[in-house]
Amino acid sequence: VQVVGSGGGLVQPGGSLRLSCAASGFAVSTYVMSWYRQAPGKERELVATIGILGGRTNYADSVKGRFTMFRDSAKNTVDLQMNSLKPEDTAVYYCYAGFGRWGQGTQVTVSS
Hints:
The chain has no helices and eleven strands. By secondary structure, it is mostly beta strands. It is globular.
C-alpha cells in the first residue's frame, strides 16, 4: 500500500503547477484523500480534501479559487492543480490517504 506524490518544482509567481498522487494497493475512490503542505519553520497544514461519495472537495481559505483537487479513478490518482501561485505557497506538499498513509512529499518553490 503506497502513495507517491510528484510534480513539484520551481515556478514564478502567478504560474501554475499540477501535483499528482499515485496510489497502489488501494483505490483512491474508497478513501478520503488530501493534500497537505509544510513550509519551513511552520506546521503541516491541510490544503485540500476530496471526499468519497460525489467527490466533494474542501479547500483551505488561503488557496480557495486558485487550487483545484481532482480524482481520476481510472488512473487511481488524485491531482492538485495549482494556479496563480504565490511565494507563500512555497512548501513541501504531501499526499495523504484517509486510512493513515502519507506520501513522501514533493517540493514546490514559488520564486522569481
